[in-house]
């Protein structure tokens, strides 16, 4: 693709943005037959041992009007040019339909991360990209940093350590994509411990009472979490 002066600035911004969120070797593409790929990047794993666990990222960006929706065909085209084992990121100033959000879950070997205008702004704020703040001390915020991993509490205020069924506690950051897709991704530490014939699991979420959730066929996530997200 030929990059004009109008979108060269966007490419440079996205290059900085992707580097800030942890990607390496970010480059703006200039190919005419890239199937919509605007940038490419790499994410290295543990120690970067000869790139043995490095993941290639392919990024497409669309500057559309806020309030509009990106056609699913655009996201499908990105997946079409992604090699197996790679990951994609689609960034837009618009939003995505529920159909598109479900589509990205269909192929776990070529995962696509959807970043809409709201997620992009929030991510820029979190990573201090283009935003400057005056620091204000807040005791409430400091208190909220307390790690409650070892003090998991149920609705009846009993300590989870008293529940003999709990064998493993894992911290899991819930992403905006998880909430939009109404799923709870399973950490590998838990997936690896689940028997192959398990279709339901009991989950204690944010101290709420235990709830049975359905294990997806690809064993990558749990379904039936809409009510849990609403309560939390």
Question: Quick gist of this model?
Answer:
With 232 residues, the protein is of the alpha/beta class. It has helices at 5-20, 72-80, 98-103, 117-126, 139-144, 176-181, 188-191, 226-231, and strands at residues 24-28, 39-43, 55-62, 69-70, 87-92, 95-96, 112-115, 183-185, 200-203, 211-215, 221-223. It has 2 domains: 5-126, Trna Endonuclease, Chain: A, domain 1 (3-Layer(aba) Sandwich); 147-231, no CATH class.
If you had to describe this structure to a student in words, what would you say it looks like?
There is one protein chain. With about 230 residues, this protein is of the alpha/beta class. It has two domains: about 5-125, Trna Endonuclease, Chain: A, domain 1 (3-Layer(aba) Sandwich); about 145-230, no CATH class. It contains eight helices and eleven strands. The protein has helices at about 5-20, 70-80, 100-105, 115-125, 140-145, 175-180, 190, 225-230; strands at about 25-30, 40-45, 55-60, 70, 85-90, 95, 110-115, 185, 200-205, 210-215, 220-225. The strands form three sheets. The protein has a five-stranded mixed β-sheet, sandwiched between helices. Strands 8-11-10-9 form a four-stranded antiparallel β-sheet. Strands 4-6 form a two-stranded parallel ribbon. A hairpin with a 5-residue loop joins strand 10 and strand 11. The longest helix has 16 residues, at about 5-20. It is globular, with a radius of gyration of 20 Å. The model is unreliable at about 1-10 and about 150-155 (pLDDT under 50).
